[in-house]
Amino acid sequence: DVVLTQSPLFLPVTLGQPASISCRSSQSLLYSDGNTYLNWFHQRPGQSPRRLFYKVSKRDSGVPDRFSGSGSGADFTLTISRVEAEDVGIYYCMQGAYWPPVTFGQGTKVEIK
Amino acid sequence: EVQLVESGGGLVQPGGSLRLSCATSGFTFSGYSMNWVRQAPGKGLEWISYISVGATTIHYADSVKGRFTISRDDAHNSLFLQMNSLRAEDTAVYYCTRDDCCLFDFWGQGTPVTVSS
Asked: Which of A9, A73, A98, B54 is deepest in the core (most CB within 10 A)?
């Protein structure tokens, strides 16, 4: 199974400051069709997860442009350019290149300092 | 508006069974693959099952294989998860999710399942 390792697991952030989360895979997520199937999700407290990005950097509808997804191969990053209060919660990366099983990272909890 | 609404969760004894449902609206259900994903209390996300368009392909996580059965009713725009031989470690919130090209573009609000005596 593909293992995704996120870091840090806890990220205290200052409002208005940038933040980034790393997701490293145990193998390249570049699939034979030329796409890299790495998604990012955000889960606010008490809510369902919401997808933010698919195929590394393709932003889902309604996702603010202060969020960006980047990376390639086995090394990926989610960046928030200026953190806002509504960005708190847990962020998960997920791979859909080699499944079953679909696998998720452990999650990174973002809190405001 | 895409909507996924899970139901059927509750308290069940170890070894018991439950059938979860996911009622969908706002899209052509028969044209999408679907999944179930769960989240144990205070834990991360775990994919547990997939069903393709037309139910031609079905996958399960090893943790539920042989105990859970996924199915769909395209006439009623619904997804199901039959859960048998339930264990304490199956305690979680269960989400149904829709697949576009790239997995899990929409999620329901979840239905909680507690396995306890």
From this structure: A98
Say how far apart CA A98 and CA A35 lie, in whole Å: 12
Distance from C-alpha of B110 to C-alpha of A43, rounded to nearest angstrom: 13
Task: Answer yes or no: are the C-beta atoms of B95 and B6 closer than 8 Å.
Answer: yes
Any A CB within 8 A of B1 CB: no
Q: Name the maximum alpha-carbon separation found in chain A.
A: 43
Measure the CA–CA gap between B67 and B4, rounded to whole angstroms: 24
Cβ atoms within 10 A of the Cβ of A76, count?
27
Say if residues B47 and B67 touch (Cβ distance below 8 Å).
Answer: no
The H or E element that residue A102 is part of is none
Per-residue model confidence as pLDDT tens digits over A40-91: 999 999 999 999 999 999 999 999 999 999 999 999 999 999 999 999 999 9
pLDDT in tens, B33-69: 999 999 999 999 999 999 999 999 999 999 999 999 9
Taking CA–CA distances from A99, the nearest residue in chain B reads: B59
